[in-house]
Amino acid sequence: MHIPANKSREINTLEGTIWKYFLNSEVGISYQTLTMRSPLTGQHLNKETNEIYFIVKGTAKFIVGDKEYDVGEKDVVVVEAGIAHYIETGALTYLTVTRPDWKFEQYQHVD
């Protein structure tokens, strides 16, 4: 399978940009950039989706549940479904693999 970049869906947010590639409902992949904390306030969690973050460029602090990780290039962070988390950064580029594929309906913002 090949998914050309021009077939991705570009999503611009306040925090950065997401390029979402559709594989199937079982797994998803996206290329993302952040220029600030995400989410801007509080935390978010995915009720159904597990996420694997692969850091391509930059540094960040990932807060996952009650753990804090300082991450940089080539690091991997795994966030299991149901765990609240957020990212603090000024510039970060990463790939996210999700299983099952991420969908907005299962997303929850936590204050």
Automatic annotation (TrEMBL):
Gene Ontology molecular function: any one: isomerase activity
Presence of the UniProt keyword Nucleus in the record: no
Positions of the Cupin type-2 domain: 42-88
Keywords: Isomerase
Protein name: Mannose-6-phosphate isomerase-like protein (Cupin superfamily)
Originating species: Rhizobium loti
